[in-house]
Structures are given as structure tokens and as C-alpha cells.
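so my prof wants the structure for this chain in the C-alpha cells format not the other one, which i didnt know existed until like an hour ago. anyway here's the sequence
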Amino acid sequence: MKTRVFAKRSRIHAPAETVFAWHARPGAIERLSPPWDPLKVIQKTGGIETGAEVTMQLKAGPIPYTWQARHIAYAQNRMFCDIQIKGPFAKWEHTHLFEQENKTTCFLEDRIRYALPAHPIGTILMDRMVRKKLTRIFTYRHHTIEADIGLYRARPLQPLRILVSGAGGLIGSALIPFLTTGGHSVFSLVRRSPMRPNEIFWSPAASTLDSLKMEGIDAVIHLSGENIGTQRWTKEKKQRILESRETSTGLLAKTFSKMAVPPKVLVCASAIGYYGNRGDSTMTESDGPGSDFISEVCRRWEAAAAPAVEKGVRVVFLRIGIVLTPAGGALARLLPVFQAGLGGKIASGRQYMSWISMDDLLGAVYYALVDPGLSGPVNAVSPGPVTNAEFSKTLARVIGRPAVFHVPRKAVELVFGEMGKETVLASTRVAPCRLNAAGYPFRHPDLETALRHVLGRV
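here's what i got, hopefully its the right format
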């Protein structure tokens, strides 16, 4: 068995104590999991102190495997160390080191001593690939830690008790670790019997939500709603899309209106579909709704929050663009096609795509919580919208594939019907005017930077 060493060392603009505390909070493992190589925590006992254990499920390509780790050393604000008990390596010892540089900066170092199975053949065949993968993962991790802590320190927010709907969805599953590593307590609305102390039952269809369970909640982030992109829009599907948003938002708002002390802020997801198909025109928060089905959905979605507004709750409608993450959504559907070398523009390719990286969406949610001047509609998009043709070329360049194919408009209309016309073929060019005015510092203002980060192609 031949032991190898991998190390990644970065300067973080925060004291070692702050960076160490970030790692010790719930959600750190999930927040550090790159979206192109996600993990699922199956079981966990303790935190990062000696004796704590965690069991995770990961994948090597399409093949799932289990990783069990145990923490064997701990020195507060200086280091902690975990080893593999069960997993793919013959040996794995991961030491996390925190070294104070001065009052405002420290060095974070991840040092891994590992051995590959079936040495020497395993080492010869796999070591280069493993080191490349570790470089991608820990570059992503260090960038994420630096940016998250930088955001918290620039706009500090006292720890809040935050209730989230749609916690298991694409955005919710990324948002919760982001919030908990920031020091906040997160509670989830669930439609089944609660299994954990931080779960609260609700049933929008039955107008059921116990306001007593919400006492002491400082903020609510409302993300739940029927997925609009999973199938053609039949009459029944369209009804579910509308009702899932209007009914759930209405229930939250009416519950607030009956509370003596309601949450101070409601951050409600909406969508840039509010503006409809507007061609090359740039939409801002002052523009009215379009005439499409999804525009009407968004209009009624936002209107359903009126009782909360009347109660004096600060309500922010995040009109969210195309969220870039390989964990789901549009990018996850496009990636296999482009990786196979079959990517290219859709229809004319001139339709605008207003996108936002997942990390910037999380940052926009944070700004909605922390900035008392934000209320009403806020466009959650990057400042760099692109045409579909530009998007296709950039994605192909980032992953090193050609983009010469073309999907005809008629094919999209035939396969997806109205859903295709209002999503894939619609042109919605949106500017984040209110985020810009609030001083939000976009991590990924241009498309190539965003794609390289979420795909680990820095």
C-alpha cells in the first residue's frame, strides 16, 4: 500500500475562529458537496469533535457507494481530522487545518493522506484521475467558503429562526445548508407527519397550518410549487401549477394576518415568467406582466400574499431566472446532450435566457432577509443575460465539446407544446436592477464564470 498526499491551501479573509465555526455548524458537509458530485448524508452522530461519525452515499459515475467516516482528532480553532472507515480508498486520512495569519485573515488547508486499492496497478491507473478530482472538489470548496463567509461579514445578520417551504426541492436543498452554516436555525414545512423537531405540518389543499407552531419564527422563505418543466401542460397540469402556488402562498399570508406577532419578512419565490415573451426588450421590476399562461400564474402567485403585506410583513417576491446547477433544472437536462457532442442552439437561438448561478440565488435570498429596503418584486437574475446561441457556445466551450447541432422550433412545439413555447422558446431579457441598487456583489456575473464554477471546470 503506497500512501500519497494531496493538499489544498487557501487564504480566507476571515479569522480562523470564524472559519472553524463555519465547519462546525450543521450543513457544512452538504454545503461543501460540489453540485456535479453530490452526496447524501444517511446517518450522522455528533459534529466534528473526536468520535463523531457520518455515513454518506455518493456515486462513481452511475454507481452508488457508501462512505463512512470517523473523526479522530480535534483542537478548537486549529484543526480536526477524520478517517475513512468504509469507502473506496485503501486509506484516507483528511486533516483540516486553520492557521491564523493576522487579525482579519487565516489560511485554510485540507491535507489528505490516501492510498488507492490494488496497489501498484490501482495507483498507476487511478492516481492521476483521483488527484484531478480532488483538485476540482477542493477548489470549489475553498471558493465557496471564502464567498459565503465574505457575504456574512459584509452584511452581518443576527441568527434567525427561518421557516422554509419546498425544503426538499432543488433550491431548498441548497438553501438550507447555506443558512445553517451561516448560524441560522432552519425549520421546514412538510405535508406528512413531522419526524423531526424542526418540522411543521401544513396542508395547503386543506387550508391547514397551525399559527401556534409558527410563533417565534423570524422569517419565512416560500419555495414550494408544482414543477412546470416535467411534462406537457395539460389542462390538469396547468391547474396544479396555478393552485400549488396561489393556494400555498395564500395560506401563509392568511396565517400571518391572524398572528399577533407574525414573521418580520416573507421571501416568496416567483419567476421571470411574470414578464412573458418580450423579445429583445429589457425588463425591470417596474414592468408589468406579460400575457402568457405563466405570466398569469406569477401575477396571481404574488397577489396571493396581499394579506401578509396588509399585516405589515415585509414581503419580497424573488422573480427567479434560469438557475444554473448540474444538480437539476435546465442545466442538468442539457448537460448529457452537450457532453455527447449533440448540443447546439434551439430554434433561431436569438431568444434571451436570463440566468443566475445557484450560489447567487442563495445570496439574493440572503439579501432579501438582511436588507430592510427590499420589498416587492426583486429580479433574481445575473447582470449578464445571453441569447440561447451564446449560452450553447459557452456551455460547449466550458466542457470541451462542439455545439453544431440545431433543434428546430417545430420540434420543440411538437414535443413540448405550450410549455415549450413559454419556456424554451420564449425570450425574456431581465435586469437585476433592485439587487444592483442594494449593492449585491454577484459572485458569477458572466455566464462562463458561472458554468466553470458549478461544473468544476475552473
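also thought this was worth mentioning. The two ends are 32 Å apart (CA to CA).
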